[in-house]
TrEMBL record:
One biological process term in Gene Ontology: positive regulation of protein catabolic process
Protein name, entry field: SOCS box domain-containing protein
Pathway(s) served: Protein modification; protein ubiquitination
Superkingdom of origin: Eukaryota
Amino acid sequence: MIPAHASPGPLAVSPRAAPAHAAMAELLESRPFGSQYTNVYLSIFALFCFKLFVKISLNILTHFYVVKGNRKEAARIAFEFYDFGQGHRSWADRSPLHEAACQGRLLALKTLLSQGYSANAITIDLVTPLHEACLGDHVACARALIEAGANVNATTIDGVTPLFNACSAGSVTCTEVLLEHGAKPQPEICQPSPLHEASNKGRAACVEALIAWGADVDHDIPHLGTPLYIACLSQELQCTEKLLENGANVQKGRFLETPLHAASQKDSTEIIKVLLEFGANINARNLELKRPVETAPPSSLAESMLLLHEATPCSLSQLCRLNIRNYVGRSRLHFIPQLKLPTLLKRFLQYR
């Protein structure tokens, strides 16, 4: 029993309020945990939508002023809302500079740069205007951005570089411009490979440019394999030829799976013929201990070609060519045209 002179503690509940308090506690316990925060989630979502609406409105307004020629007002909006000129980068999704680069509007892009927009402005996914220009094959915009200080090796949140985008789009001009200004032809560890992308999409000119600037033709990505394996899997004949001519290892694919296995599975007779000319081993076995002929579709042209090759000995000239190229080595194959040999013989050694 509580003494008359003692005051109730902070947690004490009056007898009249006890039933109401117990009912409220029971109600809260009976509701699901997530439903108690429904209003909070709705508030966060509403705030996000409001911020997105403001960003879109500002971008449209800035674009309107640029188009109408009111550069002063466009510069004011850019300065106040994007913090340009303060040494900060833009985190705004799809800034006007991104849009201009994406659409190839060179005049608008140069105007925005002159107004203080950063050439290295980024979205929340770290996409730069240079990424957009290269993906759209807008060479003039890419040059303007690079001249304004754009980082040619900038990476998105997924590790994608402008060079990767240029190769994906098949823009050999953008590829060469980037390489001339310091873009790395060889990706960092765990980054998407421009050479693999070009090989996958049949961008033979980009493949040639990357190799000329030092890309490793045998660069092996564990879950993808080599560029040659990717080219064979994608049935890209020209890329396959370019890689082999530049010294790609005809036996190196993905784990024990060789490029010949990939071409056989796809029933790609033209690629099989090229691989065999470069010395592909028809007896190589994959993880399932199968030879290429055993992975080809039954009664297919690929199966027939491989069976015929097994029964036909390789010519002496072919064996000599393979041995000479192996002796010269991959890093010195580009010196073959300088050898003091008849032109016909040099072309033969180069598979031309």
